[in-house]
């Protein structure tokens, strides 16, 4: 499900264009690092730490495990 979509409603063409552009920008940012990754966390808004705190903790733990 698109993080920009209205639940229960079809995705609008403008919404799809916005989503595609944002995804491309995020892929480009992730590619700046040899370890960069793009993760899509369903149910998270711009306040991911409040919406999906367990996902944030897991990603931080994953990064820490890589530098050990």
Keywords, separated by commas or semicolons:
68 residues
Description of the structure:
The structure is a single chain. This protein is mainly α. Helices cover 54% and strands 0% of the residues. The longest helix has 18 residues, at 13-30. The radius of gyration is 14 Å and the shape is flat.
- Alpha carbon gyration radius: 14 Å
Low-confidence stretches: none
Helix share bin: 40-55%
Structural class: mainly alpha
Mean pLDDT: 87
Biggest sheet descriptor: none
How much of the residues is beta strand, in percent?
under 5%
- Helix-strand topology string: HHH
Distance between the termini: 35 Å
List the helices and strands and how they pair.
Elements: H1 13-30, H2 48-51, H3 53-67
Short structural description:
This protein is an all-alpha fold and 68 residues long. It has 3 helices and no strands.
């Amino acid at each position: 499900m698109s993080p920009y979509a209205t639940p229960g409603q079809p995705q609008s063409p403008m919404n799809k264009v916005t989503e595609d552009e944002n995804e491309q920008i995020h892929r480009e940012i992730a590619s700046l690092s040899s370890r960069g990754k793009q993760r899509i966390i369903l149910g998270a808004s711009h306040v991911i730490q409040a919406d999906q705190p367990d996902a944030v903790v897991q990603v931080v733990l994953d990064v820490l495990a890589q530098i050990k």
